[in-house]
# Entry
Amino acid sequence: MSANRRDFIKFVVAGAVTAGCPVDLSLVAQSGEASGVANVDGEDNRICHQVRDGRAFSRPPASAKHDVVIVGGGVSGLAAAYRLQHRDVLLLEKEPQWGGNAYAMEYDGSIYGTGSAFLWSDSEAFRFAKEIGLDPLPVNCPDGSIINGEFVPDTWGDGINKIPYPPITRDSFKKFKKEIMAIDVQKRGTSLYDIPFSNFTKLYAREIKEWWDAFGLSNWGATCDETAAGVAITEFQDVVDQSRADNRYTWPGGLGAITKKLADILQPTFGNRMQTGATIVAVTPSKDEVQVTYMLAGELKTVAAKTVIMATPKFITRRIVEGLPDKQSHAMQQIRYAPYCVVNLIYDKPVFNKGYDTWCPGNSFTDVVVADWVIRKKSGYKQKHNVLSCYTPLREEERGNLLTESGARKIAANVLRDFQRLTPETNTDPVEVHIYRRGHPIYMSTPGLYTQVQPIARQPMDRVFFANTDSQGPESTTNEAIVAARRAVRQVEARLAGKPAGKETAVLG
Ligand SMILES: Cc1cc2nc3c(=O)[nH]c(=O)nc-3n(C[C@H](O)[C@H](O)[C@H](O)COP(=O)(O)OP(=O)(O)OC[C@H]3O[C@@H](n4cnc5c(N)ncnc54)[C@H](O)[C@@H]3O)c2cc1C
# Structure
C-alpha cells in the first residue's frame, strides 16, 4: 500500500501506556514528544508521576471505614467484589472504565477485543462466567497459520502434513510434535518450569522456534529463550488436543464480556462504593486497620479498612503497599511484563474469516483473531464489519515506541502493511485502524517465575492480601486472575473471622 493510500485511513490510538501508578521508571518521559503521553491517552498521570518522584502526599484522616477495600477493577478485583457482595466493600479503579486487560470496545455496533480473547471449558473462569449468567460460545476451530503466504488450517493437526516447507522441515515439525506430546509434565514436577523452552526447540528446525516465538510472545509475553519450558509444553499439548476437540469458548470481542457483566451486576448494589477514576497512592497497614489513600477528582481521600485486597499488578503494588517484607518486595520486582498493542483493523466488508485465531510467525503481529467469530454463523446474523484483532506484543526494549502517538501509529501501520502483504487477495483498505496500547499488561512466564517468585510475591500480610493474575501463574490468564481472587477472598474471610491468614506454600496447582 502506498503512503498516500495509508494517509486516508483513520488511525485511532487508545489505551494507557502508563496505566500503572506509580509508573515504571523505564517509562518516564524525559522531554519532548514523550512528555505528551498523558494527553494522548486522555489519562491524567500527574498523580502517578508525583508518587513515582517520591512525593509524600498529605494523608487526610480516614473519612469512612469498610470491611474490605479492593484496589484494582480488572477481572480479579471485580471477581473478588462479586464474591464479597455480602460485606461492606469499597472497590477502587484508576481508569475511567472497569475491566483492566479484559476490556472490549465497540465500533458502530461491532464489538471487538482490546486484550483477553478466550477461555477453556475445563477452567474456573468458564464455570465462573456461567455462574454470573453468561453463556460461553464455542470457538470450534483449531488454529491455522499463514506460512510462506499460504493459509494452513489446523497447523498442528492435519495441517502439519501441508505446511509449505521443504520435506525435511515438515519432518522436523512432526518429530517435534511426537516428542513434545510424549512429555509427562506432571511427572517431571517443577523442574520443567525452571528451564527455558529453547532447550527443546533448539533440537529441531529453526522454523519451529519462529512459530513458538510468536505463540509465546502473544500468550505469555516471552520468546522460547525466555519461556519456562513447562508452560510451553503444556500449551502445546492443549493446542494439539484442540484439533481433536476444541474446548475454547468466548463472546464477540473476547473476555471483556466477563468484566462488563460483573460491573453491570455490581453497580446497582455497590453504588458509590464502586469508584472509577480513583488512583490509590498509599496502602498503610497498622495493627488494627489498613489506611488506603487515593486521589479522586483532584482530591486526596483516606479510608480505613479491616482488610485490603490488592488486585493491581505487582510492579505497582510493591510501590503502594508500605511495610512489605524485603524478600516479598524483591520477588514482586522480579516479575517482568511485556508491552503489548492490539491493532484492530476494521473493514466494512468481509476480508478474512478463515479461522478464529490465525498465527503469522515472522511478522510485526503474531496472530489475528476474527472479533465476531463465535456469532457469525448464527441464523439472522449479518457481519456488518469484519473486525480483525491483530495481537502485537513487543519486546521490553521496544516499550518506548508506545509512548508517543506517532510511535503507536507506526506500529499499527506496520501491522496493516504485513496483514495486507500476507493476504494480497483482500486488496482493500480498512475503514479505520484502532490501536489499543498497554505498557505492562502481561507478565512474562520466565523460568523460575512460577516455582520460585510467585509463591513469595503472593504471601499474605496480616490484613493485606494479593489477587491479580500475576500472583498465580504459570501464565497470565483471566482464569488465574479469578483463581487469585477466590484465594484472596478466602483469606479475607478468615481474617475477618479473627483467624490468621495461612501462608501460601503450594507451588503447582
Ligand atoms: C493482548 C492480551 C491478550 C490476552 N489474551 C488472553 C486470553 O485469550 N485468555 C486469557 O485468559 N487471558 C488473556 N490475557 C490475559 C488477561 O487479560 C489478564 O490475565 C487478565 O485480564 C488480568 O486481570 P487482572 O484483574 O489480574 O489484572 P488487570 O487487568 O491488570 O487489572 C488491574 C487493574 O488495576 C488498576 N490499577 C492499577 N494501578 C492502580 C492504582 N494505583 N489505583 C487503582 N487502580 C489501579 C488497573 O487500571 C487495572 O484495571 C490477555 C492479555 C492481553 C494484554
Notes: The CA atoms of residues 22 and 319 lie 7 Å apart.
